[in-house]
Amino acid sequence: MSSGGILVHGGVDLSGGAIDDLPGVTVYTDTKGFSTGSPQPLTEALPRLLLDGEEVTGDRSSNRSLTYSIEVKAPTKALLDQFEDLYAAVVDSAASSFLWKPDGPGGLGATTVFEAFRGKMAQRFDDGWDQAEAVFLRRYDLEVPALPFARALDRTVVDGLIVDPVGSSSVIDSCDAATGWSAGTRAVSATTDSFLTAPMALKAASELDGAWTASYNYDAHTITGTFTATFQKTFAPVSMTGTKYLSFWAIGHTGSLSAGPVTVDGTPCLPRGSFAEKNAAGDWGVRFVFECPVASWTTIQIAMTTSQVYPWDSPPLRMAVIVDDLKRSNQPPAATTGYQGVWSIPVDGSMRTPGSLEIKHASSALGDVMVLTYDDLGNGMRPDLRRLRTGGPATSASSTVVSGATELLSSSATGAFTARIPVSSLRPGSYMLLARTRVSSSPATITISATAGTYFGTTLVGTLSTISAATAYPSTNYQINQIGLFHLPTRKTRSGAAAEVEIQLWTPGVSTVTLDEVWLVPLDAVTTRVPCGTSAPAAGGSSSKLFIDSPTVSDRYGGVWVGTQADGSDARTAGPELSALGRHIFRPSKTVVFVVCTNAKGYSVALSYHARSHSNRGA
Amino acid sequence: MGCEVVAYADNGEARPLSLECEVSGVTWETGWGTQQPDGCQEAQFQVAWDPRDASPLVGIGRRVEIWDGPAVPYVGTITDIQPGDRWTITAWGLGSLASNCLCLDGSSNPTSVPDTAYDQALARAGLPWAARSSSISSVAFSGATSTTVFNKLSTLLSDYAASVGKRWAVWPGLTPGAPGQFVLAADPTTPDYLLLPSSGVVGVADRDFVTHVYGRYVSATTGAPPVPSSWATVTAANAATAAEFGRREEGMDLTVLGLLTAPKAQAMVDGKIGLLGARMGWTNGFDATPLELVRPGGAPARLALVRAGEMVRICNVVDAYGQLLPGVTMDVVIGRTKYADGAESIGITPVGLVERDLLGLLSVSDPAEFVAA
Fold first, then answer.
1. Could you tell me which of A61, A104, A313, A512 has the fewest CB atoms within 10 Å of its CB?
2. How far is CA B366 from CA A410, B156, B160, B361, B363, in A?
């Protein structure tokens, strides 16, 4: 390839460069006929009985096919044949990398990698092939299948995700007064607002300045109104030392709400997720979390955007964004006691890609580890429920349990552990309910019951879903048990409806079970559960390091490995001990990682993946 | 692929197969009212591995599970291993193991008491089912506790279930490695799923339905060994169906059950007509995607977790006259599901698909000779 850029397949340069051990041999790829093909979407079309057309579903794509022709020029017949031996072996290999660095007006672009499989190679016998052979020139046509989407050459690594063992946080601004706050051309007021029951918060609203942007949808005859306010305030220098997470609570007056960019002295903060949270007065909103990359700052800018779709011929509803309770903390907020943490990771590229995780603690065995990864839809979904607890038996704070508190489960539904989740932060689907509990004397088998229902305030809509599980306790240690499946919400509600799903948990007839934490794990999430032991870490024994490698073309099986060395030098497979094995997928633009380690306060998490794009992997 | 296939080694260790070889083509079926052991039925998958691998990952009779995240939709034991480019592995649900166990009491004498037969099969034969949480029946199914010949546990459970208008199935436990969960239940009466108006229409067929079942049974025996000396007939009918579509009579031979009391014989025919529903057979199954198959609350179905024995309310109905009735719903109990891991849709067949063998369903299991000793 003379002008198309650089092509290297399985280490063999097909674009005119030198080839190891074959002096004087050059290979060119014809730009005419060169094609990287395209991913083939796999869909299923089901006819609709009462309406026209078919419903098309499917989210998978089939392989692409790389097709190209090469021309080989060698100084001798022997070298020409040696090249064929070399390259035929590459084409015939089970897996190979096809690197493409396209040429352009600004020079060579970033390297795109196609993960290729065993292909077809055919010598071309067109007019004059015999004369060409006489001057040691040969042409081949190739057809090589490859994974549908192209990946980056290097892995993207996200590390330093650490849950501090002891949580600390402090309020930067309670947002009770508008003093010092501005929002560009928009007016900012401190308000109690009809959306809020009590405390003052900052509000910027469309009806105050009349400014929003409108985009017209000519087909649907609707207008999408978008309202953005960038709140800004300059403080005395705010030190982030030891508290690198910035977070604030927000709601929007219309359906959709997004936060960002958030900048401190002009430096962008990294989005680290969002989760549903009630403010001090009990109003549901979303807490947005950012990681602050600087040690100290004075001026913060928080851009908040809300939007609504309204009919062409009617006026828009008011649009407003409300921001409250700006905090800094050392843990991702509500990471509780350092045993569990949640992060939202920006994922490059446009296509889902297998991701690997490493979970490590310097000195402690990790205990029971549960890892979830799921798409960040920005609705604040999190599996841990104690932070959403609204009632139940008396609790005792404890710094040695996952959730930070325990309670003796009630013997009847009256007085049961109760948590409420805003329906807006649930994805409709199936959920496994898990609980971490212990008993005071063992062995024992105790039934744990749970219900789920959808409520508007105190009014139950429809009926409760009930599950129960006879749980065996071989010892008095804490253990995590699956209680059963819920299909939530038990009653769907329209977008924006102020409904909640209530989960209750109790032990019928007995009150000897101590509850630590409850998780509602969506089956849409990818889940891996690995017991790593609680004794002193030792090779072959309890483990302080966990590596979850997702399968790739070069490592077809991946693996789940446990050990004590950070470099994995004593890691062994955890296959026989797994109680859930997920092949973790990271999907752009953001993926949530939720990790529980029941025995290791202050563990760290690192992720890595090959960013994946359609056909051209940008720099 | 969303699901993991986990095989158990002979030392009981779980081996998630995808960590050691390539697994593809994972499909499994569940059944309810199928004339085979219900619950998890056949599962199949292909594996590609190096035949020189010294440590075989699968073996006949070994346990195999399918995991969907933390949930376990399938458990069975491996029945067939077909070598090839890709080895094809077939498994059957744990319910099928009941046909390997005889109905024996603690002294190895044949018994017709379901509780005893169940408990002893667990204790003696290591049947990997969970201990009973409640009584199936502590009463002898035949005229006496002991029977003259040996019967299989599957036979006793099926015949007992039919006599009380129920079916039995074995399902996976809640967690990996858990024993099979025996369920004895009547067909559900409230929907677990709604099939929204879209693709699913189930046709009806007039073949193979019955409105009157006559059962002939042995009402007295004489001599030693006992031989039948008197016979009697019991009847069960669905008059409403007969009035609308005409009377359809079928006979049921209960004499193979040996000496029966009149109430027990009546229970057998009542149970059978109850299970058959005295209604038309269905002509077809349907494929459903999570767009159409939803929980009554609106949550989309998790296809891997849809089970036979659950009820679907179909929102597109062809009535007995073959007319499409938009806005009218019809409830069907799922008789079989077939799901391929990763597929966007699941194949669902109602209980009572027309291909059913009506006469087969009307016979009691053969050679179930529950003759009192």
1. A313
2. 51, 11, 14, 12, 8
What gap in Å lies between CA B262 and CA B271, rounded to an integer?
14
A432 contacts B133? CB cut-off 8 A: no
Q: In the numeric block, which tokens belong to residue B241? A: 């169906």
Residue B299: its chain A contacts at CB < 8 A? 428-430, 487-490, 492
Query: Touching check for A50 and chain B: CB below 8 Å?
Result: yes
CB of B246 within 8 Å of a chain A CB? The answer is no
Residue B295, chain A, CB below 8 Å: the answer is yes
User: What's the pTM value of the predicted model, to 2 decimals?
Assistant: 0.81
Judged by CB atoms closer than 8 Å, whether chains meet at B299 and A487 is answered as yes
Kindly determine whether residue B302 and residue A523, on different chains, have CB atoms separated by under 8 Å. Answer: yes
What was the ipTM of the complex prediction? 0.80
- Whole-number Å distance between alpha carbons of B293 and B3: 20
**CB-defined contacts A:B, below 8 A:** 132
Using CA atoms, how far residue B3 sits from A41, A141, A385, B7, in Å, is 21, 39, 26, 13
List all residues of chain B from 119 to 138 with a beta carbon under 8 Å from chain A.
133
pLDDT at A78: 94
State how beta strands B212-222 and B249-253 pair.
Answer: parallel
Residue pair B78/B42 in contact by the 8 Å Cβ criterion: no
* CB-side neighbour CA atoms (13 Å) of A520: 29
| Confidence band, pLDDT 50/70/90 cuts, at residue B104 | very high
Q: How many CB atoms within 10 Å of residue A389?
A: 17
- Residue A230's closest CA among A141, A132, A154, A304? A304
- Inspect the interface and report whether the beta carbons of A487 and B295 lie closer than 8 Å: yes
Tell me how close the Cα of A282 comes to any Cα of chain B, in angstroms: 26
Considering only CB atoms, A579 lies closest to which of B175, B324, B342, namely B175
Sign of CA dihedral A596, A465, A493, A319: negative
**CA B3, CA B13: separation in Å to the nearest integer?**
19
CB contact under 8 A, A489 and B298: yes
Instruction: Please report residues of A whose CB lies closer than 8 A to that of B201.
Output: 49
Where would I find the beta strands (DSSP E) of A337-428? 340-346, 353-360, 368-375, 389-391, 395-397, 405-408, 417-422
Give the DSSP per-residue string, A477-539: S-EEEEEEEEEE-SS---TT---EEEEEEE-TT---EEEEEEEEEETTSEEEEEE--SSS--T
Query: Is residue A555 within 8 Å of residue A328, measured between CB atoms?
Result: no
A523/B201 touch (CB, cutoff 8 Å), yes or no: no
Work out the minimum CA distance from B267 to partner chain A, whole angstroms: 32
pLDDT in tens, A559-593: 999 999 999 999 999 988 999 998 898 998 888 88
Residue type, A382: R
Burial label for A478, CB within 10 Å (0-12, 13-18, 19+), is buried
Dist CA B351 CA B38 (whole Å): 12
Lowest mean pLDDT among A294-298, A358-362, B320-324: B320-324
- Token match 């502590």: residue? B138
